[in-house]
Amino acid sequence: MINIANLIDEQRCYEKVRMIRWPEMVVCVQCGSINVTKNGKHKSSIHRQRYECQDCTKKFDDLTSTIFAGSHIPLKTWLLSSYFMGLNLSNSQIADELDINKETAHNLCTKLREGIVIKKEVKELENEVEFDEVYVVAGHKGLPEEVLKKERKARPRRLKGKRGRGTLKDEKVPILGMIQRDGEVVIKMLPNVQIVTIEPIIKTIVKAGTLIYTDEYSIYNKLENWGYEHKTVNHSAGQYAIDEDGDGFCEVHVNTMEGFWSLLRSWLRPHRGVSQNKLPFYIGAFEFFHNCKKRGKKLFGSILTTLLNPDKRTTEEYLNFEYIK
């Protein structure tokens, strides 16, 4: 476990990065060669080691090809921000804790969340999976030009969405949740809740032949045609769990997914409203945190390890996969 006292020291921060990035020996970031020699210190920090590959002659340092590279912010500020994100502090709270400008904290935390979601593993769910959708009110916080396009009067209190099911356009953003029982969860932000929207997501994430549990919502009616087993509960009729085989255990339900939504709402609350353009990265980060099955300071090691991994995809690829239009 990483102690916060170690993150206050810049030298220890670089030592931690090297230990996680190259646990056995330094490897060239260009060609993967282990024939690497030290090449002095970086001009911006006496603790930042530089290297030179003897095979491809590439020169690099501890932070090359990471989100920390090219930044004038001290490494300890990056790592402390990651640590506080694991504790679910808001951007403003992190700015106060680190005594930095709120805009700096916002930009830094945005890059950290983007770094997490573009590097996290793409999951495949199987066996028994529950589906459900939730709607999060999200406008255009921080983007006044987008607010003006809506031609609406300013609201004195919290942004309120329309009643019923929503869409991205009317600022009541749908989020599809898929959770494997005794396994991991995948959540995707949608432009709307239509069959044509969810079909490619489900076929990419959920293995064919999987048993899927849902409520009675009609968008799930095609699941059997797509190669899945499908069982439902009818919430509108007051039905929340069914014991199909008479063993005293109600196996047909979506209670696991609904419990997850309670965790998501509680986690989003300290952030006091998230804009639509940032919401995919907030929910993507929460998905990662939840799947780590760690909390608080125990989560920091997983965050840093993921941030130092090679890129899984670009930000654009991540957003395209989310079907944000």
Can you walk me through this structure?
This protein has helices at 4-7, 10-21, 75-86, 91-98, 102-119, 144-149, 195-205, 255-268, 279-292, 300-307, 315-321; strands at residues 36-41, 49-53, 59-61, 128-137, 172-180, 185-189, 211-214, 229-232. The chain is an alpha/beta fold. Helix 5 (102-119) packs across helix 9. The two termini are 41 Å apart.
In brief, what are we looking at here?
By secondary structure, the chain is of the alpha/beta class. It has helices spanning 4-7, 10-21, 75-86, 91-98, 102-119, 144-149, 195-205, 255-268, 279-292, 300-307, 315-321; strands at residues 36-41, 49-53, 59-61, 128-137, 172-180, 185-189, 211-214, 229-232.
Please describe the topology of this protein:
Blueprint lengths: L3 H4 L2 H12 L14 E6 L7 E5 L5 E3 L13 H12 L4 H8 L3 H18 L8 E10 L6 H6 L22 E9 L4 E5 L5 H11 L5 E4 L14 E4 L22 H14 L10 H14 L7 H8 L7 H7 L4
Parallel strand pairs: 4-7, 7-8
Antiparallel strand pairs: 1-2, 2-3, 4-5, 5-6
Q: What's the overall average pLDDT, rounded?
A: 86
What is the N-to-C order of secondary-structure elements (H for helix, E for strand)?
Answer: HHEEEHHHEHEEHEEHHHH
Rounded to the nearest angstrom, the radius of gyration is 23 Å
Distance between the termini: 41 Å
| CATH H-level superfamily title of the largest domain | Ribonuclease H-like superfamily/Ribonuclease H
Largest sheet: 5 strands, mixed
**Uncertain residue ranges:** none
Structural class call reads alpha/beta
Q: How many structural domains in the coordinates? A: 2
Approximately how much helix is present in the residues? 25-40%
- How much β-strand is present in the residues? 5-15%
CATH architecture of the largest domain: 2-Layer Sandwich
Can you count the beta strands?
8
Helix count, DSSP H or I runs of 4 or more residues:
11
Q: Give the strand order, joined by hyphens, for the main sheet.
A: 6-5-4-7-8
CATH class identity of the largest domain: Alpha Beta
The name CATH uses for the topology of the largest domain is: Nucleotidyltransferase, domain 5
Envelope shape = elongated
